[in-house]
Design goal:
The protein is mainly alpha-helical. The chain contains three helices and no strands.
Length: 61
């Protein structure tokens, strides 16, 4: 079984962004590096957009 077959919701950009933001935010908080969740989400969205422009495909159609 392939990864995206096992976890099809990860193909959805909104869901993936939320999971990544929650993970990054909580990890940073554990290390006493508090950053606003809004800023974390913006960084993740920007990074995903940059990777899309480079031709890497994260999301299926």
């Amino acid at each position: 079984m392939k990864f995206f077959e096992k976890y099809p919701q990860l193909k959805e950009q909104e869901f993936l962004t939320k999971i990544l933001a929650d993970t990054v935010f909580s990890t940073m908080a554990l290390e006493d590096q508090v950053v606003e969740m809004k800023k974390v989400k913006k960084i993740i969205q920007t990074t995903l957009e940059e990777e899309k422009l480079k031709g890497l495909q994260f999301f299926g159609s």
